[in-house]
Design a protein that fits this description.
Structural class: alpha+beta
Distance between the termini: 36 Å
Largest sheet: 6 strands, antiparallel
Number of strands: 18
Helix content: 25-40%
Radius of gyration: 26 Å
C-alpha cells in the first residue's frame, strides 16, 4: 500500500523528523490561500506546488513548480491540477493529478538520499544512504553503486547510533555548515527516527529523497515515500483513512474485496490460475513461448463457481486481453467446480476471445467432461506447456 508525500511527511513528523511547513489542497483557490498563509507565517515568499500521485519523477514530468508569491502558486496549481502526469513510474498513460501539496521553499545547500528496505538476502532491514540526493536511486545503483552506503540493522537491537554516525561521516554531512556538530547530531537523530518509524509502521519501503541540509545546517526531509506491508493491515486500522483509491487499479481493488489476488500487467493473454506459484510459472511459460501475460490472477484454493465467474469478468475488463489461459491444478479446489465456473462465465459474458483450459488434479475427468459437453468453443490442453503454446498461437 502506497501513500502520498504529504501523508508520509505527517508520519515523519510524528517521529520527530523535520519537515517543511505545507498544506494539502484539492482546488486552485485553496492552493493560493495555502501559499498566502505559508508566506505570511514563514516570511519566505518562495513556495513549491507539488502534484500528489503515487509515482516518482514528478518534477521531471512537470508536476513540481517552484513559485515566487501566491499569484505564481495559483498559476502553477491551475497548470498541475487535473493534468495527466506522465513519469517513468506511471507508464505512458500517466496519472491524473487530483491532489496538490503547497510547501514552503527551502534554502538547499546539499541534497542527500536515505532510505530503508527489506534486504531479503541478508534477512535484515537495510539502511541505504547516498550523496546523490534528488536523483533516482535505481539510476545511482546502476551507474555509480560505490556512492551508495548500506548498513544492515540488527532486528533485536535496531539501528545503532554508531551506524548512523558512520553514515554521517561517510557522507560528510558536517562539511561546509556553520555548526558541524549540530548538523551531524540532527542527521543521526533523523536516521534513528526513520529506522524506528520503518519498524513500527510496518513499512516495506521508506525513503527520503532528497533529505536536504539547509544553508543554516539544518536537516530537513524535502520528500517522503512510504510503502506499507499490506500483510500488516490488521494491525493498522488507520491505513484505511490514508488510502487513495483514485491512485489504485479499480479492478485490483475489486479483486481484493472479493478475496482474489489480481495484478494488472501490460500483455494481452489473460491468466486464471489457482495458487501464486503456479500463477507465476504460468506467466513465465507464456513469455517463454513468445506471449505476454495481461495479468496475475490467483483465485486461491477455495474458489467457488461464482468467484471463477467474477475472475473472468475482471480479466475481460481490460481491452488488451485477446485470449484467456485457464491453468488449474485441483488440490483443495476441484476441477469440476472450475469447469462449471468457466462455462457459466463464457455463456454469461458471450466470450469472443480464444479460451484454452488446462485442468489437472481432483475430479479432473469430471471437469473435462463438463467442458466437452458445454457446446462452447473451449480448447483443452494436455499440460501447462501445451496450453501455453496453444494460447500464444491463438493470440498471434
Amino acid at each position: 500500500m502506497n501513500i502520498h508525500e504529504y501523508q508520509g511527511k505527517q508520519v515523519l513528523a510524528r517521529y520527530g523528523i523535520a519537515v517543511g511547513q505545507g498544506e494539502f489542497v484539492t482546488t486552485v483557490d485553496a492552493a493560493e490561500a495555502a501559499a498566502k498563509k505559508i508566506i505570511a507565517e514563514t516570511g519566505n515568499e518562495i513556495v513549491v506546488v507539488k502534484a500528489q500521485i503515487h509515482a516518482g519523477g514528478r518534477g521531471k514530468g512537470g508536476g513540481v513548480k517552484v513559485c515566487k508569491g501566491a499569484a505564481a502558486a495559483k498559476e502553477a496549481a491551475e497548470a498541475i491540477l487535473g493534468m495527466q502526469l506522465v513519469t517513468h513510474q506511471t507508464g505512458p498513460a500517466g496519472q491524473k493529478v487530483r491532489r496538490l501539496y503547497v510547501e514552503q521553499g527551502s534554502d538547499i545547500a546539499r541534497e542527500l538520499y536515505v532510505g530503508l528496505v527489506v534486504d531479503r538476502e541478508a534477512r535484515r532491514v537495510a539502511l541505504m544512504a547516498s550523496t546523490e540526493g534528488g536523483m533516482e536511486i535505481e539510476k545511482v545503483a546502476e551507474e555509480t553503486p560505490e556512492k551508495i552506503i548500506t548498513e544492515n540493522i540488527d532486528p533485536l537491537l535496531g539501528l545503532a547510533p554508531f551506524q548512523a554516525r558512520k553514515i554521517a561521516y561517510a557522507l560528510k554531512v558536517g562539511e561546509g555548515v556553520p555548526e558541524p556538530k549540530k548538523t551531524v547530531a540532527q542527521f543521526v537523530k533523523t536516521l534513528m527516527a526513520l529506522a524506528d518509524c520503518f519498524v513500527k509502521e510496518d513499512c516495506s519501503l521508506c525513503e527520503i529523497n532528497p533529505l536536504v541540509i539547509t544553508g543554516s545546517g539544518d536537516v530537513v526531509a524535502l520528500d517522503a515515500k512510504f510503502n506499507f506491508d499490506s500483510n500488516a493491515e490488521a494491525r493498522h486500522k488507520e491505513w484505511a483513512a490514508l488510502r487513495d483509491t483514485d491512485e489504485e487499479d479499480p479492478v485490483e481493488l475489486e479483486a481484493t474485496e472479493v478475496g482474489l489476488s489480481y495484478v494488472s500487467l501490460d500483455g494481452n493473454i489473460g491468466c486464471l490460475v489457482n495458487g501464486a506459484g503456479l500463477a507465476m510459472s504460468t506467466m513465465d511459460i507464456i513469455k517463454h513461448y513468445g506471449g505476454e501475460p495481461a495479468n496475475f490472477l490467483d483465485v486461491g484454493g477455495g474458489a467457488t463457481k461464482e468467484m471463477v465467474t467474477k475472475a473472468f469478468k475482471m480479466i475481460l475488463s481490460s481491452d488488451k486481453v485477446k485470449g484467456i489461459f485457464v491453468n488449474i491444478f485441483g488440490g483443495i479446489m476441484q476441477c469440476d467446480v472450475v469447469a462449471e465456473g468457466v462455462v457459466a462465465a463464457t455463456k454469461e459474458l458471450g466470450l469472443q476471445v480464444p479460451l484454452v483450459v488446462r485442468l489437472e488434479g481432483t475430479n479432473v475427468e469430471k471437469g473435462k467432461e463438463i467442458l466437452r459437453n458445454s457446446g462452447l468453443k473451449i480448447e483443452p490442453a494436455d499440460c501447462m506447456g501445451d496450453g501455453a503454446q496453444k494460447m500464444v498461437a491463438s493470440v498471434k
